[in-house]
Amino acid sequence: MQTAANKITNYFLRIGLIEPYQSEWFTYILESRLTTLFSLPILILIGCFIAPIEVVITLNIGMLYLRPRINGFHSKTFIGCFMTSTLLELSSLFLFYYFDNVIAYLTFFCSIFIILYLGPFNNSQIHFTEEEMIIARNKMHVSLVIFCLVTFIILFTFPILGRCLIMSLNVVAFLLVIANLGFGIQ
């Protein structure tokens, strides 16, 4: 994915769609989008072997919404990213069946606390300035409030899908913790 992102970035530089100072950021964003575009259908297919499709899709929607806003652990290679994503999805779908209401609410509030304390994560590929981190933190707070409100509404109307969203939150909090411990791209 990195090679494809580099080639597209170089092409955009040549034709003047981006400036040289934007190339590193553009390559990073493009690589993450290409990775998602490639891996998401495969992850959904793999997840359907363990759980119903609506559970798998809800889990992935939660991840797709939260990850760009909170960041966290990123593998250094596409294969590492894909393997980590597959392992986390399968683990989440397996553990999901052990989530009763008490565990769901407990992990929900613990994950919110972790995200508010540690997020968003700034790594060498993003390298936000202090001003940009303040903006990113504010956007993260707004996104987290929206996510929590939607999760509570869904939790009371479709409890199984609401617990899927809580599991997404738990995974993002976990990725944030291991990134802050020094794993992945720093």
Q: Can you walk me through this structure?
A:
77% of the residues lie in helices and 0% in strands. The chain has 186 residues and is mainly α. It is built from 7 helices and no strands. The mean pLDDT is 89.
List keywords for this structure.
mainly alpha, single chain, 7 helices, 186 residues, 77% helix
Question: What is this entry, summarized?
Answer:
This protein is mostly helical and 186 residues long.
Record the SSE blueprint:
Layout (H helix, E strand, L loop, with lengths): L1 H13 L8 H25 L5 H18 L7 H19 L4 H18 L11 H28 L1 H22 L6
- Poorly predicted runs are none
**How do the SSEs run, as a string of H and E?**
HHHHHHH
Instruction: Give the oligomeric state.
Output: single chain
**How many separate helices?**
7
Task: Summarize the amount of helix as a percent range.
Answer: over 70%
